[in-house]
Design goal:
Number of domains of chain A: 2
Distance between the termini of chain B: 46 Å
CATH architecture of the largest domain in chain A: 3-Layer(aba) Sandwich
Subcellular location (chain A): Periplasm
Helix content of chain B: over 70%
CATH class of the largest domain in chain A: Alpha Beta
Keywords (chain A): Periplasm, Signal
Number of helices of chain A: 17
CATH superfamily of the largest domain in chain A: Periplasmic binding protein-like II
Family (chain A): Belongs to the bacterial solute-binding protein 1 family.
Order of helices and strands of chain B: HHHHHHHHHHHH
Strand content of chain B: under 5%
Low-confidence stretches of chain B: none
CATH topology of the largest domain in chain A: D-Maltodextrin-Binding Protein, domain 2
Low-confidence stretches of chain A: none
Number of strands of chain B: 0
Signal peptide (chain A): 1-26
Strand content of chain A: 15-25%
Number of strands of chain A: 14
InterPro entries (chain A): Bact_solute-bd_prot1, SBP
Largest sheet of chain B: none
Shape of chain A: globular
Oligomer: heterodimer
Helix content of chain A: 40-55%
CATH superfamily of the domain at 80-250 in chain B: MetI-like
């Protein structure tokens, strides 16, 4: 049996191939790896990408999405093997390592070439002078106060200084009723409590844990913070189980009226309301040291964005970054995420429709974003080391000064 | 048949077994040997995985982990956790197996107990960790009961106190793992000929003598096999410890698996993590060889 291909069919096939190949050559496909899509309402990030594609004919975006931890591992391996996606979602804690691997592109030349208005972005994360990340959306960490517990304890004025916080925490503590003033999660499984629940006290008062780009844990700000946390612990105001408590458990205890105050992500507001619709709470900035009147540093976690140094489509990748950082798109994205914008001009819709978010937005606007772990080498490891020393201090094995010295020694080895 | 044909036939016969084995050899090679060899190679490289051009490091990473006091603490915790788990798995498994094999217990009750005793085996490590975290939290049920009956005067932070954390995770692991022994020993008990016990009765042997001189010797092959397997598996336990304590408080529940995990995914020191993994591999390999030898001797 023989096959005979008719010339007409051959022509059609050739034309189809040519058409397809031309289309493929004309379109640039960007790969965008991030963990945001699963955390946003279904289909919403894809919709933003579709809008971008419509506004930029010839550029297609493929979303590579996964949970946070999986994305982190995927990006680490991609950076090592040179297979990092064109555009990557970043956490500030990763950028130092990725930059050391030469995996992230410097966005300075791209900003200059496109005359990008740098004043419109809330922050540009730089490592070795290279602009490697923009925070697209920020999740700030104010203090949540259970107003009913505060009223029952006779706390009429919400604390603004550390001394007032200690007093309020003491008043709200009734160990016999399993009720405590504050909650501190220091599980080694996720040592982010060091950043969110401990160092936030330092940053709130405009202080720093660093000096000249090096750790300064033995300095007064960190030692004072440790002394303050120890005083809260010695007064029995911290909910027990500190050393193994996770962030989720912290929120659970607050939701169940078991703690009066906690430092937590604004992203949890809706979760808290869902778990306990009757909970009467308010948000306040993290209290400061006596006499401090300057701007308050507001701890935050962010969804950052960067471009792969190995990307063959950096020009198109930069267009996508610009698009996500633009006022309207950024406002749309952060409204979906219940986060604060990376573009200072963007105003998310929830701040006008929700009282708690409006209050938090005021706190956000009067302070400044502060997270010194962003850009540090092996940030999670640094938190783990500090966590261990803080646990030793709270267990009575060492003083705040000794804890600071031991942590400083460990951190210096990593720098 | 010509000489050429004969030698061709011989060659075919010699190659045939290897051809039959080749699919499994290929799978073992790809899924077991390749990752193992890669990790061993990483342990001798600087900046393994993280750099495209890693340099040879010699034994530097092994030296670094052997100089780290946390590694030795982890090794000690691993041994304590493993030995205590295996001993108690065996003891509890034996007691429950004897109970379920006894004619003195009502058959209906025995069936109910059989289901109850095997329950821990049905849960995944994550569920077991969550259950015990809830039970042993300072405001949990265990503290409440112990305080009510007067055994403790104040709330104990079972997982959060350096004094009790290692014992608490070991206890949770004992609870989770005894059914393996129970089921294996129960099967063994049902295989012991009744004649042995009848002969012992005629000789006037007491219950404990029958246990020591008949039951345990008859079960010895099962006890040794399962103990060795349990030792190897328990040494590598990760999720239970990670979810309950994360290796803390301080380093009081740090075991080799959590130590290695932190090196890899917290410090991003994949070379040292590989060296630590190779140490775990060598310990497991030693135990496996011991197990194979024992099986061959039988």
């Amino acid at each position: 049996m023989t096959f005979r291909i008719k010339p007409a069919m051959l022509k059609i096939a050739a034309a189809a191939w040519l058409l397809g190949a031309t289309a493929a050559m004309a379109d640039t496909t960007l790969e965008f790896t991030q963990w945001w899509e699963p955390e946003l309402p279904a289909g919403s990030l894809r919709k933003i990408m579709d809008d971008f594609e419509a506004a930029n004919p010839g550029i297609k975006v493929t979303l590579v999405s996964g949970p946070y931890a999986t994305t982190r591992d995927q990006i680490s391996v991609g950076a090592a093997t040179g297979t990092l996606s064109d555009v990557v979602g970043l956490d500030g804690a990763w950028v130092n390592n990725l930059n050391a691997q030469g995996a992230l592109a410097d966005m300075n030349p791209m900003m200059d070439a496109s005359k990008f208005d740098k004043a419109q972005v809330a922050d540009i994360i730089k490592v070795d002078g290279k602009a490697v990340m923009f925070p697209v959306a920020s999740f700030v960490y104010p203090v949540f106060v259970n107003l009913d517990l505060a009223a029952q304890a006779g706390v009429t004025k919400l604390p603004s200084t550390r001394a007032e916080f200690l007093e309020a925490a003491k008043k709200m503590t009734h160990a016999d009723k399993n009720q405590y003033g504050w909650v501190l999660p220091l599980s080694l499984q996720t040592p982010s409590g060091v950043q969110n629940d401990m160092m936030s006290w330092v940053w709130a008062s405009g202080q720093s844990m660093m000096a000249n780009g090096k750790p300064a844990l033995e300095g007064k700000p960190v030692v004072d913070m440790l002394t303050f946390v120890k005083s809260l612990n010695d007064a029995g105001t911290i909910s027990p189980g500190i050393a193994t408590k996770t962030e989720q458990e912290k929120v659970e205890e607050f939701v169940n009226d078991r703690v009066g105050m906690m430092i937590d992500s604004l992203a949890h507001v809706n979760l808290i309301r869902k778990r306990n619709p009757k909970l009467n709470f308010d948000l306040i900035p993290v209290p400061v040291v006596e006499g401090y009147t300057g701007k308050r540093g507001l701890p935050y976690a962010s969804w950052g964005i960067g471009i792969s140094a190995a990307s063959k489509h950096q020009e198109e990748a930069w267009k996508l970054v610009q698009y996500l950082m633009s006022e309207k798109v950024n406002a749309k994205l952060v409204s979906l995420a219940n986060a604060f914008p990376g573009n200072v001009n963007a105003k998310p819709d929830f701040v006008t429709s929700d009282k708690a978010f409006a209050k938090a937005f005021e706190i956000f606007k009067t302070g400044y974003l502060a997270n010194e772990f962003t850009g540090l080498p092996v940030a999670e490891d640094l938190m783990t080391q500090f966590d261990v020393q803080a646990q030793k201090m709270l267990a009575g094995e060492q003083s705040p000064e000794q804890a600071a010295t031991a942590a400083q020694k460990g951190w210096m080895a990593k720098f | 048949m010509t000489r050429q044909k004969r030698s061709h036939h011989k060659l075919k016969r010699a190659v045939a077994p290897y051809l039959y084995l080749s699919p499994s050899l290929l799978i073992i090679g790809l899924l077991m040997l390749l990752p193992m060899v890669t990790v061993i190679a990483y342990s001798f490289q600087n900046s393994a995985v993280l750099r495209r051009d890693p340099t040879f490091a010699g034994l530097k990473h092994y030296q670094a982990i052997f100089d780290d006091p946390v590694f030795w603490a982890s090794l000690w915790h691993t041994l304590y956790f493993t030995c205590m788990s295996v001993i108690f798995h065996m003891t509890i498994g034996m007691v429950f197996a004897l109970m379920l094999n006894s004619d003195r217990i009502n058959p209906t009750l025995r069936n109910i107990l059989r289901v109850l005793y095997i329950l821990p085996w049905l849960f995944t490590a994550v569920i077991i960790a969550v259950i015990w975290r809830l039970l042993l939290e300072p405001n949990g049920v265990v503290n409440s009961i112990l305080m009510q009956i007067g055994i403790i005067g104040s709330k104990v932070e079972w997982f959060s106190s350096p004094e009790t954390a290692l014992h608490a995770v070991t206890f949770a692991n004992i609870w989770a793992g005894y059914p393996l022994f129970m089921v294996s020993l129960l099967a063994g008990l049902q295989g012991i000929p009744k004649d042995f016990y009848e002969a012992a009765d005629i000789d006037g042997a007491k219950a404990y003598q029958k246990l020591i001189f008949i039951t345990i010797p008859q079960l010895m092959p099962i006890i040794i096999s399962i103990s060795l397997l349990d030792f190897i598996w328990t040494m590598q336990v990760f999720p239970l410890i990670w979810i309950t304590t994360g290796g803390g408080p301080i380093y009081s529940t740090e075991v080799l698996s959590t130590y290695t995990y932190k090196l890899a995914f917290s410090s991003y020191n994949l070379s040292q993590a590989s060296a630590s993994a190779v140490v775990i591999l060598l310990i497991s390999l030693g135990l496996t060889l011991f197990y194979i030898r024992y099986q061959k001797a039988r």
